[in-house]
Design goal:
The structure is a homohexamer. Chain A contains 11 helices and 15 strands. With about 350 residues, chain A is of the alpha/beta class. In chain A, helix 4 (about 80-90) runs parallel beside helix 5 (about 105-120), helix 5 packs antiparallel against helix 11 (about 320-340) and helix 8 crosses helix 11 (about 320-340). Chains A and B meet through strand 8, helix 9, strand 9, strand 10 and strand 11 of A and strand 7, strand 8, helix 9, strand 9 and strand 10 of B. Chains A, B, C, D, E, F: InterPro entries: Gfo/Idh/MocA-like_OxRdtase_N, Gfo/Idh/MocA_Oxidoreductase, GFO_IDH_MocA-like_dom, NAD(P)-bd_dom_sf.
C-alpha cells in the first residue's frame, strides 16, 4: 500500500488532539508532511510537537511546494471550510473537512459537485458514526431486526454547555449555534439511518434566552453580551414516505442531564436506543428488552480517519461523504429558515 | 347552598366508576336523580347500584320529566358528545362532557357558542388538571419561578396499550386513536400552561404499523384486522410568539416504558418536569435540582367534578371550559390534517 | 362439554386453599361433589365451607355412592398417595395426585402402569410448570433460541424454611425432607426441559445439621428433636448424551436468600435464567442480555387444574403425567441411594 | 537473614509482570540472578529490563554456572512444569512452580516425592490464597465461627473468556482447558479449607460447544477450529465424611456475569461467601448477615512469593506445598476421567 | 388463670384503636367490662362498637359499681393522667396509663409512691419497647456483645408532623410539645438501656419557630396562632459515670426525613442502630457490619398490654413501671428547666 | 502587586504537601525564600525539593537573615504554635498558623492581642471554609434563604481513624485528641455561620475506650498503650440568644461510616446539609428538597492560602482570623473543662 502525504490546514485544538494523533497511528498508510496556519509560529510549534517536517502560514505555498500533499485535513473555523476545501480540491487533493460541511447549503452543494468533477474524495469528520453503539444499530437495522424505521428522536442537549472559549457564540464565524456545532452530529446519525433521504417538510423553532441572559457555565463562562447564536433548536422533519424525526439540540436548557446525546429509533419490529444501546421488541410472543453489556469504547477519531483513507483508496467506507454533507447542510439551512419565518 | 340535580347520560364504565362516585361524594352540593342509557336495563341496573331514583332509555323523556335535571354528565361515546350536549344545553342544563370535546372542530365550536348563548356552563372532563403535580406546576409558573415558558415536550406514550375492549380502534365512533383518547389530555395540560393560545403552525405525522400488525397486548388483546386509527402521533406546534410544543402520543410504540405521561416545561428561569414533579434552575449562582418528596395523590375525578360544580355556581374554576375545548379540538383537527397531507 | 364430577380425598390446607378454589373456578367443566377425610367432621366442615354436597370419612363409601366421581383429587399425606390413587384408578377415576408421586419408585411405577392399564389419566400437581416464566422458557427452547441444552443448575433453596407445622420432618409420613417436598418441583422442571430423559449417573449428598440442631425458623418453629429428614440435598445428575444437572435443594442452609427457586439453563446458543426470566446470548455479533419486563403472574393452580381436565378430555396438556411421575420418583430414589452409600 | 539467589526459568508474561516484580520487592530476602529461556534474546531482554545479571537459553548452563541459584521460579508452559522442576530439585534448588502442578497426577506425585527426598521446598503459585477475603475466611473457620463445613460451591466462571493468545486451547501443551487454567485456583481454595482431604467419589461433565463454535470474545478472539480443550467443566466431589463440593469452571458459558470467581461455604454454624466476603449466621437468636466493608486489596503475588520464601527458610507458610499440589493434580485427573467415561 | 376485669377511662382514638383491640385479643386473661368518658354518648358508642357491657360518664360511678374493675386503662388527656390514676389506685385497681406519665415530675413521683403503698401495679404505655428491634438490642446488650454503652443518640424527629387534630399544641392540656408527645418514647428506650440511671447534668434548648410561623403540614394542618408548645427540643444528658445521651425530638424541622425514630448506641465493643437494626463491630480482627434481614414486625400494643398483665400477675415484665415513669418525668422536667433558663 | 517573601517553619508533611505547593502556585503574589526546621538536613532537603533558596535549623537565624520574610507559615506541632507565632509577630511578620490555634485559650488570646498590637495578620489554616459546599452554604445564609439559624449538628466522626503515625495520641504535644485535631475544623465552620458568637453554656463528655483498648486501624495501626487523648467527644453548646450546636467528633467510634464530616444547619426558613450540599424548605406551599448536582471540587489549600494573602494585603477575606481563633480555642478549652468536671 503506497503511503499518502497529508497536510493539516488549521492549527487549533482539534488538529492537535484529534487528527494528528489519528494520522500518526496510521503511519503505515499516511504520512503527515505539513501544517498550515495563518500564524506561522503556531504552525511551526504544532509541527515540532508532532515531528511534522514542514510548516506554512499560507495555503498557496503549501500547494506550491515540492511536497505537495495527497490529502488535506481541513481543521479551520466553520466559515473557512468552503474556501480551503475548494482550494484543496482545485489542487487535486482529497479532503477530510471538519463539521459542519459549510456555512450555507449552497457552499456545501458546490463543494460536493466540485469534488465529483475533480474525482477527489471529500468527506466530513462526523465521527460519532464510528461508535460501537452506532455500528451495532446499523447492523441490527440491516439484518432486519428493527423492521422499517418510521420515527426517530434525535437529541444533542446540554444543560449549561455554552463553550466559554473559541468562537462558538459568534454567528459570522460559526454560522449558528447549537445546531451548527452539536445538532449536525446527531442529525447525521439519524439521516444516515434513513439513507440520507431528503425531508419535504420542516418545522422548527430556535431560542437564545439563556445564552443572552448569562448564568452558571459548566464548560467555562461565556459572554452573554456578545452571544449571537441559538442556544436551543427544536425541529420536526417529515419525509415523503411518512417517516419523521424530532430533533432537539441545545447549548443550554433548564433540564436535568448535564449532557444527553442520543437517538431513539422506532421501527415496525423493534425500537432501539443508542446510549446505552438497547432494543425493545417482541420475542416468543412476549415483550423483550435487550441490553448489550459488553460493548467497548473505541477510538472514534482513529476509526473515522481510517474510514476516510479507505475512501481515498476507493474502498467502501461508512464516512459522511460529500453528497451527504450537502444534504445535511441543506437540512440545517431549512431548519434555520423555518425558525426565522 | 341549594342542591343541584344531576343526570347521567351514558351508562358505561366511566359513569359507574368515576362520575357517579364523585357526585355521591359531593352530596351537599349535588343529587344524582337519573341515569339515561340506550339500554333501559343497563340504565336501571346502574341506577339501582348507586341508589339513583330514575332510569331512562331516552333523553327526551329525561328532559321532559318532572325531575328535570340542572346539569348533565355526558358519558356517551365520542361521536355522541355533540348531539347530547347540544340537547342538554337546549334544555337549559349545564354539561360536564367526557373528553374529547367532540369529533370535529366545528362541533366543538358550535357547542361552545351555543353554551354561551344559553348562558350555561359547558366543561370537559380533562381531570389530569387536578393532580397535585399540575397544580404545583401552575403555582410555580404563576409565581414567576419558571420565567417565560418557550418550549414544552408533551408525552402520553404507551408501549402496548391499545385497549382490548370498547371501541377504541373504531374511527367512526372515536374520531381517531391515540391522539383523540390520550393526546388530548396532555395537550390540554400544555395548552393550559400557555393560556390556550392558538398555534399558527403545526407539523405532524401519524402511524398505524403496530396496531395493524398485531402482537402482545398489555391492556387486553386488540383486533389487528379491524384496527382503523393511529397508534402513534408525533406533532410539532409553533405559536406566533415563538413558543413551541413537541407532542408524542401513542397507543403502541417499541419503547422501554409501559406508560409515560409527562410534561417537560422549559422556561427562561427554570425548567420543570411533571412526573415526578421537579425543577431545574439556578440558586445562589449554582445549578439546582428541586424535588418535592411529599406530594400526595389526590382523587382527581372528585376534584374535577368539584371544579365543574364551582363553575356552575359562577365561581372561579380551573376546569377545561367550553372555549378551551373548542380550541383543543381545533388543534387536534389540525394535527390530523397535517398528518394526512 | 359434559361436566365431570370431582371428589377430594384429604381435607387439609391444600384442598381448601388450592384445589377446591381452582375447581370452583372451572364450574363449566367440573363439579365438586364430595370431600372425603378420615375425620368426618373435618370433611363436612370443608364441604360446607365450599358448598359441596357430600362428605365422607371413608373412601369405599365414596366410590360406592350413587354420586360416584369421575375424577379424584388426591390431597392426602405423601405415604397415602399410593393407596388412594390405586383405589381411585381401580374405581375407574382419573386422578390428580399431589406431589411427590409416591414414597418409593416402585409405587410410582406401579401407579403409572395401572393407570395405563385402566385407561385413566393419572397426573401430578407440579404446578410450577404453569408459570409464565417456565412457559416462555419452553417456547424459547422449542423455537431453537437456546440451541441444545447441556447443563442445568436447579435450585430450590430456603435459608430457614423448615415448616413448623404438619409432618414435614417425619420420614415415615413424608418419605424424605427437602428433596421430597421442594426438590421434586424444580427437578420436574429441569427433567421436563430434557424430555424426561433418564440420567445414568447420579452422585449426591444429604445433610441434616441445622434441622437437628434447631434455631430460628422463618416458617414457624420446628422441633429439632424429632427431625428425621434431610434439610439439604446436593446432587449431580449426568445423562447418557453428556447433559448434566446440578441440583441444590434445602429446607435450611446458612445462605443469604430467604428463598431461591430457580433454573439456570445453559444451551449452545443461549443461556436462560428462570426467575426473573432472562436470556444471555449473541445478537449481531455482540453479547446480549434479554429481559422480559412485562410477564404477568398467573394463577398456577388454576392453570394446572385446567391442564389436568384437558388431559382427562383427551386433549394435549403440559401436566406432569403418570409416566413422568414414575421417572421423577426413580430419580429421587437414586439420589437418596447415592447419598446413603 | 542471608539473601537467597533466585533464577527464573521461562521468560514470558507471568515472569515479567508477576514474579520478577515480587522478588525485586523482597530484595532484603532474595536476589534475582538469572533468567533462562529457550530464546536467549528474550531471556536477555527480560534480564536487562529488570537489571538481572545473567541470561541463559539452557538450564544445564544455568545450574552449572558459578552463580548457581538457591531457588527456581518455574514459569514455563504447563507441560514443562514437570521436567524443569525435577531438574531444579536434582540440582538442589527450592522451586516455586506456576500452576497447575503438572499435566498428570503421576508427575505431580513424583515431583512431591522427589522434593521430599531432596529436602527441598516445592510449592505452587496458587496466589488466590493470599487475598484478604480468603485469609479472613480461614480465620473465621479456625476460630470456629463457621462450625463444620459440609458443602462448598466453587466457581471460576467466565462468560466469554477463552484467551485469544498463548496456548490456552492446545491440549498437549496445557493438559486441558478451563479446569487446568482456572479451576485449579478455586479447587485449591476449597480443598485447603478441608485440609486437603481426598474425595472418594467424583462425578463430572465437560463440554466444548462454544469453544468449537466460535463467537464474540471478551479476552481477544480465539481460533475455534483449533480449539481442543474443555470450555466448561462441572463436577461433584464427595468426601468420605460426607462433605461435598460442587465445582463449576468455564472459559465460556452463556451466563450473565463476565467473570465469577467465588466460594460459597456452608458450615453448621454459619455460611460464608468469599467475594465480597460475607457471613450468614444467627446472632442472639436472629438471622444475621455480616459484611466487612473495609477489607483492602493486597498484592497477592507479593504475598505468595513471601510465603514461598518463608517456607524456604523453614518457617510456617500457607503456600500450596508439594503434597497439596499432588493431591490437587490427582483430583483434576479424576475429574477428567469421570467426564470422559 | 383467673380473668381480670378491665375498664377504660377516656373514650378517644387510642382507646378505640389500640387498647381495646389489644385487650380483646387477650380474652383468656382479661375482660373489658366498662368504658368511662365525660361524654356518655361517646362512652356508649365505643362500648357498643366493641361489645363492652357498661358505659359511664363518671369515674365514681364506675368504681362504685358492682362490676368494679381490677384494672384501669387510663386513656385520658395528659393533664388528667394524674387525677384518674390516683383515683384508680385509691380504688384498688392496677393502672396502665398512657404516656407521658404526668404533667409534672412531682405528680409522677406521687403516683409511683402511692401505687407502691397500695401494692398495685402502675405502668405506662411506652410500647416502642416491644419492637423486635429493641428486644434484639436489649439481648445483644445483655449478652455482652456491645460491651459497655457510653454514648447514645436518641432521635424522634418529624419534618412537618405537628398534628392537625387534638390538643397537641395546647400547653395546659399536654404539658409540652414534641418532648412530651414523642421525646418520652425514645428517651424511655435510651434510659432503659442504662437501667434508668438518673443523669446529673442536663443542657437543653427548645424552639417554636415553625410551629408559630405555620406552613405545610404532613399530619393535617395545625393552627399557628394557637401554637403554644415547643416544636423542637435538643438536649445533652450526662450521667455520673460518664455516659451521655444526645436527644433530638421535633414536631417540625427543616430536615430531609419525614420521620426518624432511632437510637444509635455506642458501646466499647460494638455500636448498634435501632432502625433498621444493625451492629458495627470487629470480627476476626476486621471491621464488621451486621444486619438482621428477617426481623418481623410485631403488634407492639398487644405485646405491651400483655406485659402489663404479666406485671399485674406478679410476673417479670419489661413494661415501663411506675418508678421508671417517675424518673422519666423528672428528666423531662429538667430538660424543660434547662431550656427555659 | 509587590511580591511577599514567605518562610516556612516546620518541615513536615503538611508543609511539603499543602503549603509549599499552594504558595508556589501563587508565584505572582508570594515567593518562598526559606524553610526552617529543627533538623537542618530535613530543612535543606525540603528546600531543595521545592527549589527554595534558604534552609535554617533555627528561627533566630531566619529572622536575623538579610532575607527576612514578610510572612511565616507556621507548620510546627501544636504545642509550638504559640512560641513560633509570637516570635514571628515580634519580628514583624504576618503568620498563617496551622490548626488548632494553640494548646490553651490563654495562648490563643495572647497571640490575637499581640498580632493586633503589632498590626500584623495572624490567621489559621482551617481550610474547610473554602469548599464549594461551605461557600454556597454561606451564600444561601446571607441571601436569607435559610432564615435565622437556631440549631446546628456538627460532625467530624471517624470509625477507626486514629492516625498510626505522628504524635496524634500524645497529649503534651497535641493538647488533646479528636477535638483538637478534627473537631476544631467543623466547630470553626459552625461558629463562623453564627458570626463567632460565644456560647454561654457548654456540656460535654469525652471518652478513650477504643483508643486504649486497641483494634483494627484504618489509618495505620496506633499504639493503644501510649494512647493519652480522647478518641471521642460529644458536646452541647448553647448561645445567649437560644441558638444551639451539637458537636460530635471522634477518632474512633463503633459506627457505620468510615468518615463523616458534615454540618446540618436548621434555620427558620430552610435547613441545609453540607455534604453533599442540599436544602430542605418550602416552595410554592409544598415541601421541597434541593440538590446542587454540579458543584466542583476545589483546591481548598490554594484557596485558603489565597485568602491569607488577601488579608495580608488588607483586602476582605474569609480566612479564620486571630480573633476567631482565640474564641475557637476558648470554646475548645471549655468543652474539655466540662468533660473533665
Amino acid at each position: 500500500m503506497s503511503i499518502l502525504k497529508a497536510a493539516i490546514i488549521g492549527g487549533g485544538h482539534i488538529a492537535d488532539q484529534n487528527h494528528i494523533p489519528a494520522l500518526k497511528n496510521l503511519a503505515d498508510q499516511v504520512e503527515v508532511t505539513a501544517v498550515c496556519s495563518r500564524d506561522l509560529q503556531k504552525a511551526r510549534a504544532l509541527a515540532d510537537k508532532h515531528q511534522i517536517p514542514f510548516a506554512y502560514d499560507n495555503a498557496e505555498e503549501l500547494f506550491g511546494s515540492q511536497n505537495k500533499p495527497d490529502l488535506i485535513i481541513n481543521c479551520t473555523a466553520n466559515y473557512l471550510h468552503y474556501p480551503f476545501t475548494m482550494q484543496a480540491l482545485e489542487n487535486g487533493c482529497h479532503v477530510l473537512c471538519e463539521k459542519p460541511p459549510a456555512i450555507t447549503a449552497a457552499q456545501a452543494r458546490e463543494m460536493a459537485d466540485f469534488a465529483k468533477m475533480k474525482g477527489k474524495i471529500l468527506a466530513y469528520n462526523l465521527q460519532l458514526r464510528q461508535t460501537q453503539e452506532y455500528t451495532l444499530l446499523k447492523k441490527c437495522l440491516e439484518s432486519g431486526q428493527l423492521g422499517e424505521i418510521y420515527h426517530i428522536k434525535a437529541d444533542f442537549v446540554r444543560r449549561r454547555g455554552i463553550p466559554g472559549w473559541g468562537n462558538f457564540t459568534n454567528k459570522e464565524i460559526q454560522g449558528g449555534g447549537a445546531l451548527m456545532d452539536l445538532g449536525v452530529h446527531i442529525l447525521d446519525l439519524a439521516l444516515s439511518l434513513l439513507d440520507y433521504r431528503m425531508p419535504d417538510r420542516i418545522a422548527a423553532n430556535t431560542y437564545d434566552f439563556i445564552g443572552k441572559a448569562g448564568g452558571k457555565g459548566l464548560m467555562g463562562n461565556w459572554n452573554a453580551e456578545s452571544f449571537e447564536v441559538e442556544d436551543a433548536c427544536f425541529a420536526h422533519l417529515s419525509f415523503p414516505d411518512n417517516v419523521s424525526i424530532m430533533l432537539s439540540t441545545t447549548f443550554a436548557l433548564n433540564t436535568k442531564s448535564e449532557k444527553n446525546v442520543n437517538l431513539q429509533v422506532f421501527g415496525t419490529l423493534a425500537g432501539a436506543v443508542l446510549n446505552p444501546f438497547s432494543m425493545y421488541t417482541e420475542i416468543a410472543g412476549e415483550l423483550a428488552n435487550i441490553k448489550f453489556p459488553h460493548l467497548q469504547e473505541t477510538d472514534i477519531q482513529l476509526a473515522n480517519t481510517t474510514a476516510f483513507l479507505d475512501a481515498c483508496r476507493g474502498e467502501s467506507s461508512n464516512i459522511c461523504n460529500a453528497e451527504q454533507g450537502a444534504i445535511l447542510q441543506e437540512v440545517v439551512e431549512k431548519i434555520y429558515q423555518s425558525a426565522q419565518r
